[in-house]
Write a structure and sequence with these properties.
Layout lengths: L1 H11 L4 E3 L8 E7 L2 E8 L8 H11 L2 H10 L13 H8 L2 H9 L14 H7 L3 H9 L15
Antiparallel strand pairs: 1-2, 2-3
Helix pairs in contact: 2-3, 2-4, 3-5, 4-5, 5-7, 6-7
Amino acid sequence: QLESATQAALAYGDGARVIDTLAQAYHPMLREVSGGELGYAGFGGWDTGRHGLDYDLIEAIKKGHVALVHAFLAKGASANATDRRGAPALMWAIGSGHGDCVRLLLNSGADANVKDAEGLSALALARRKNKTDLLEILLAAGATETNAPQPETEK
């Protein structure tokens, strides 16, 4: 399948990418067509496929390349995935400052009001990191300030 993807990318031309979502450590994961040649785009594998799609999604977010994130979402990773410590994928994207990854996760169904295992909201993290662009993205996606205690409603 990788060979077919390579041929399709070459036919598509400059800017086309091939992503090997099963790349092993130290092997190219992302390659891009430039000048009619398929070259290494600076991202190697991390033994992908060994720990599951959600783990691979979070690792892709850490790399910060939206095409990698898209590939794992397309394979079935959850936009609401969490790491072993309970940190949601969206929080990793915000913490790393990757606006394209934040947008993609939100458009793929990530909860804009997600909190980490310690109760920190996505908005609070964006504020803490002074990421005004990410604050705007989160607010546009319907995020609300949920770290403050909410008044109880009468039933």
